[in-house]
Recover the amino acids of this structure.
């Protein structure tokens, strides 16, 4: 109750209903008038005194301060304040390169709409039951935090799934939990690319990758896509070897082409010889009309040149914001360090 009384008196002072120097009623009188305890009234007065709205005068009572706190003098709201002139805020070169990525916006559910699973068919009741059961069993150690790489049981489950279903060769130590493919791209670009260094992208390709690469200052080199996927020969003929190649070999975005085995092997061998790394975005690879998904290109890698990324958001629901990144063993420590610097560790309750 003291918060209510404090708020009412403060508003009256700021609105001018209680003028500077006005004497407030005695605490006993207010307690009697509002049927409150005197202790509640005293607490509200003490709060107002501590913030400079009122002042006590020995033997006389409590009065509205003659000089109110300077930052509260404008009773019409902050939008009326006159701002003092100041120098223009200088942004970093990274900030000046940033452009908003306008991903999928909320639209009415409809069949055959890109990037939109049948959310109206998602088993929300079952999901709520499972989530509630897990939260009831949550441990103090889980609430305290975890590893920068993510929740270890989830990383072990992801590694086992990728080994069996996607043909990815990895252990749980190579798996990092991220918020999705977009964060995986951003993390990789920041670690591997310096401003001005070249990166290859499929043309046409995923716009979100271009947003990331432009933000870090990389020089994007467009490589056409043919019936076998990214046209390596065309890229080599037109461009110098890049620091990084971004590709969607399992289900090319947006054409849907699956990169042939011959092209995959050629790309891996060229990357090994040229010192190039490949970012394999496993975009929509689980979606197939029949048969098992095509194994990932990472499973063919014998030189540690592939960084593999996937997301649960596409197969479950976009708001989940949960994905994974598989990096070569020698790069685990630097990716973990980057995670620890930016977020300490990914949110654990969603992972558990």
């Amino acid at each position: 109750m003291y918060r209510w009384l404090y708020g009412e008196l403060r508003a009256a002072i700021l609105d001018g209903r209680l003028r500077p120097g006005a004497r407030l009623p005695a605490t006993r009188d207010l307690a009697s008038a509002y049927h409150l305890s005197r202790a509640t009234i005293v607490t509200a007065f003490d709060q107002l005194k501590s913030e400079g709205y009122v002042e006590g005068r020995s033997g006389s009572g409590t009065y509205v301060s003659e000089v109110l706190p300077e930052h509260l003098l404008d009773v019409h709201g902050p939008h009326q304040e006159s701002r003092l002139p100041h120098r223009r805020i200088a942004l970093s070169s990274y900030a000046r390169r940033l452009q908003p990525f306008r991903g999928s916006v909320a639209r009415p559910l409809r069949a055959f709409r890109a990037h939109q699973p049948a959310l109206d068919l998602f088993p929300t009741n079952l999901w709520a039951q499972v989530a509630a059961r897990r939260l009831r069993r949550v441990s103090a150690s889980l609430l305290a935090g975890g590893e920068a790489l993510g929740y270890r049981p989830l990383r072990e489950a992801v590694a086992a799934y990728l080994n069996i279903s996607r043909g990815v060769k990895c252990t749980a130590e190579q798996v990092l939990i991220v918020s999705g493919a977009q964060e995986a791209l951003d993390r990789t670009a920041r670690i591997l690319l310096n401003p001005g260094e070249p990166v290859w992208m499929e043309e046409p390709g995923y716009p979100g990758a271009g947003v990331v690469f432009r933000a870090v200052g990389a020089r994007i080199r467009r490589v056409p896509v043919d019936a076998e996927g990214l046209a390596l020969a065309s890229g080599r003929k037109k461009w110098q070897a890049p620091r990084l190649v971004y590709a969607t070999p399992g289900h090319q975005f947006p054409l849907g082409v699956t990169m042939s085995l011959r092209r995959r092997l050629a790309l891996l061998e060229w990357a090994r010889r040229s010192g190039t790394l490949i970012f394999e975005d496993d975009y929509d690879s689980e979606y197939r009309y029949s048969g098992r998904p095509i194994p990932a290109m990472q499973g063919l890698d014998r030189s540690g040149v592939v960084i593999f990324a996937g997301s649960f958001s596409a197969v479950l629901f976009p708001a989940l914001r949960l994905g994974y990144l598989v990096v070569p063993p020698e790069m685990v420590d630097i990716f973990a360090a980057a995670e620890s610097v930016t977020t300490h560790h990914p949110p654990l309750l969603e992972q558990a």
Remarks:
- The chain has 13 helices and ten strands.
- The chain has two domains: 2-72, 145-351.
- The longest helix spans residues 152-166.
